[in-house]
Amino acid sequence: EVQLVESGGGLVQAGEALRLSCAASGFSFDDYAIAWFRQAPGKEREGVACISSSDGSSYYADSVKGRFTISSDNAKSTVYLQMNSLKPEDTAVYYCALDWRPRPRRSSSKWNLWYEYRYWGQGTQVTVSS
Fold this sequence. Notes:
Number of strands: 11
Oligomer: single chain
Order of helices and strands: EEEEEEEEEEE
């Protein structure tokens, strides 16, 4: 059974940093992608960043480019989201999600579409105060 477990959320002040972790288990796919999404109250789920397991290629939403960095430790089956210079508008529940399909079935141009991902974690709350 595929499991994704997020951790690392919390309450910080604007300008501070947090690192989220997504521990993945229960699968042996060779070429997959793990993405971070976020959802604030009353807003749609938004793709934040994505990383490919095969070559480490990464993708970011414009709103977080230059501030957030996605990385992976394949030995630990864990994906990280380093979030620097946090802003109040970053406040949301953050989810990690797994797209198990190998390329070309998985399209990099659709990395930020939530319905492309079959497996999801339970989410972790990030709150940034001004």
